[in-house]
Amino acid sequence: xIKCTDARxxxxxxxxxxxxxLALAGGVVGGGTTAILFNTPETPASVATTFGNYKVxxxxxxxxxx
Length: 66
Known about the structure:
71% of the residues lie in helices and 0% in strands. The chain is mostly helical. It has one domain. The longest helix has 26 residues, at 13-38.
């Protein structure tokens, strides 16, 4: 766990790099969720997710309703 208790911690390059990587990863995961559930990709990285996973969600909805 990275503790940012001091103002100097924010200016460290490694802390800034980790924050940027976490923001990017959160955007990709969020885009993948909408790509699977609504068949609408929000990020370019989640376009391939719409090809197969939307069908799996629809099949599981049909099976769970019976």
